[in-house]
Amino acid sequence: MAKPAEAADRERKKIQRRASKKQYVTDPRSLIAAGYVMIVTPLPADLFPADEIAALYRLRWQIELAFKRLKSILRIDQLRAFDPELART
To answer: Which residues, including other chains, have CB under 8 Å from residue 16's CB and lie 6 or more apart?
Structure first.
C-alpha cells in the first residue's frame, strides 16, 4: 500500500541521512520502497483485502506497544525469583 506523501518523504530523507552518515550510496530501489508499506501474509487476497490486513496490523502494533509499556512500568519481564523451582512456579 502506498504511504501518504509526507510519510514517504520523511522516510526517504531518513534513508538519505543514514547513507550520508555511513558514507554509502543509497540504492534507488530503497527510495522507491520508502513510499510503500509492505506486509507479507499467506492469507488469500480475495478473502482478506489489503486495507483490512493493514488495519489488523495497526491494531496488532498497538497491542505490542501496550505490552512493551506494561513490561517497562510493571517490570513483568524480570523474575523476582532466582531459584529455578520458584521461577517455574
So the answer is: 26, 31
Strand, helix or coil at 39? coil
pTM: 0.62
Burial of 30 (0-12, 13-18, 19+ CB in 10 A): middle
37 touches 7 (CB < 8 A):
no
**C-alpha closest to that of 54 among 70, 41, 63, 71:** 41
More confident residue, 85 or 24: 24
Q: How far apart are CA 58 and CA 77, in angstroms?
A: 24
